[in-house]
Structures are given as structure tokens and as C-alpha cells.
Amino acid sequence: MVSPTTVAAKPEDLGIDPEKLEAVFARAKRDVDQGILPSCQVAVARHGRLAGMRTYGHAVQGGSDRPATDDTMYHFFSSTKAVIAAAVWLLFEDGVLRLDEKVADIIPEFGTNGKDIIDIETLMLHAGGFPLAPFAQAKWTNRKALLEAFSQWRLNWPVDSRFEYHATSAHWVLSEIIERRGGLPWKRFIQERVTGPMGLDELYLGCQPEQQHRVADIVYIGEHVPPPGGWGEVTPEMILNFNKPDVRAAGVPGGGAVASAATMAMFYQPLINGGVTADGSRSGTRIMKAETIEFATKVRSKPHHIEEMLNLVFPGLNCNTNRALAVVVAGDDGNAVYRGFGRTSSPRAFGHGGAGGQIAFGDPETGISVGYCTNGFVEALLAGRRGVAIASLACSCVAG
Questions:
Q1: What is the pLDDT of residues 362-383, one digit of tens each?
Q2: What kind of architecture, by CATH, is found in domain 4-85+186-395?
Q3: How many of the other CB atoms lie within 10 Å of CB of 357?
Q4: What residues does each domain of the chain span?
Q5: Fewer C-beta within 10 Å: the chain N or C terminus?
Q6: What is the mean pLDDT of residues 53-67?
């Protein structure tokens, strides 16, 4: 749980309308009440503090099925990518990394099979061309095996010829870049430079055994129906393996974060408030410069970076990815809802969702940040509609 000092005495203190906040909670609760989800958790923050948090339902935690509480933690899957991104942004700020650098100049093991021309910007835009590059879960903690995998990976398509989501492969590369340019193991760098200064001691990049009794086990609800375009790397088997202690502890950089909804909402607060915290004794702690955040959240996707999977559901949509450096930006083209944001999000809202319908983003214009998580996997379109509804209500919470 986040520090009590970060929790507002009442939502009005943060300029949040309490009735509108309750509407967010009610929408989250509805899916549990109707038996659609076993449990969920939702939190809204503003001005560096938590406006409110609620947890609903039951979940298996530590082998026991019991009520989920605000102490329960969840897998955030690809919402993890924004945490890794923040660490890479600091490398830009420190002057030890450039967008135009070739990945292979930093990681020579990577520069094989045509991958030598991939630069940092292309990598972070999911346009590197190796979305299906394999690295088995059993090897996730073996750095030597990772470097060997880098040398063996081949392109699935020519570099920057299209966008295709790299579920884990690109962020394995980013984790190695953090180690080589940050001078520390990647998890330690993030703890010392990002989550620690933010006061987020319970944002776990790999949850160790002593805390796993608090983590909600993942369950699939109904038939395991492939999403449009097929499973790709993220199959039900892969997802359910996160219930295993060793996989849960590994902390894959593309999707291994374990946290509460409140923690993920609070992660975005400094990032949408000029890079500075506003939490009690930590108030005024600078995580990174405002200029760094502006640089990192600038949309850099190209016209041909289209979400092809969305075209399978909505033919002719041709929705641009609207990606900045390893995060997604809502945008002003009317397609924010397809990118996982609310109908009331500002164009500058940015963040990254996660498998199963996890939500984590912040909106610099309203100051609101949101975290939502569940342990129940349902059909992808249903999860998407739920996310849009919750995000829309959350972004409407500002009073007045």
C-alpha cells in the first residue's frame, strides 16, 4: 500500500468531486457484482496524493481464497513498460544515451541477423521488426542466456517497415541498455532512481516469496477465445504461469510488475506534475526534469505505424499508434479510446495498459492519474470497453 501521507483527507482537498469519484468506484464494482470478474481494484490520484481507492471481490492469495482488500496486489503486465521507460528517460537526461544510437553499439551481442541498423528510437516505438523473438520464461533470470538469445534473434519483418507490438522482446533489450548505460542492474537502477525517490516501495519488478501471499492469482473467465490476430506470444498458458512463484519473482521487464492500483496511480503523479513529487516528507523530490518528460512523451510514431490488430475488429479504422518513447499518448484525432484512454482524457494523457484490462496512465492537463487492475481475464473487447468506461469516469472527476 502507498504511504498514508499520500492519502488525502477527502477528495475535495484535491479538487475532486466526491460523487464523480464514487461513480468510478461503482463502475469497477459492477463487474464483480455481476460475476464478470472475481476481483478488481481501482484508484484515482491528483496533486501528488491519492483521492481514493477501492477493492472488490475475492481472489486466491497465497493459496487461500479470501476477500481482496486494499492490501492485495495484482499483476500489471504491460503497464510495467512505462516504469522501464521512465528509467530509460533518465539515461537521456543523464546524457548517456541518444535516440539515434544503434542498439548494437551498446549491446554488440544484439547486432546480428540484420538487427545492427535498429536505433533506440525505433526500438522504443515497437518498430524494430522482432516482435516474436523468443526468450523462454524458464530463462528470465539468466542474463547470459539473454545475451545469447539477442545474438540468435532474427527479424520478423524489415526494420521500421511497420508497427507490431513487441510484448517482451524490446523491453528485454531496454533492460540491458539500462544496465550498460546506467551502471547498475536494471531493477536496482529503477529502485534507486525512479520508484524509491517516488516513495513507491511496493512497486515490485518481480515479487519475492515473502510478499507473494498478497498477490491475486490470475484466472480466466469463460472460454479462452483468441483475440483478433491470434495470441502471439501472450497466450493463456504464459499468463497463467505468472501464478507460479518463480515466474512471479522473475520480473520480466515487459510485463512483470506487481503492485496495487494506488501504487500505479501514484507512479504517474510526478510524471504529470513536472517530474516532482508532492508526498509529505518527500515533497519536492525531483525524479526527472520537466524537459525530459516533455521530450519523452512527444509523439514520434510515423504515418505507417498503424495498429493493424484494430483493423481486424474495426475494418478501415487505420488507427495510428500515437506512441512516444515506450508509452502511448491519447492524442486529439478521436482515437484515444482505441488506445486505452477515456473519452474525457485530454490529448496529452499518456501511459500504458496491460493484459487483462489493467489501466495505468496520467493526464498532465487535469492532474489526474488512474490505476485499475483485476485478476480476471475476459474476452478482449469486453475488457477494452470496461477500460474506456472507467477511464472516462476517472478523467471527469475534477470538480467544477
A1: 999 999 999 999 999 998 889 9
A2: 3-Layer(aba) Sandwich (3.40)
A3: 25
A4: 4-85+186-395
A5: C
A6: 97
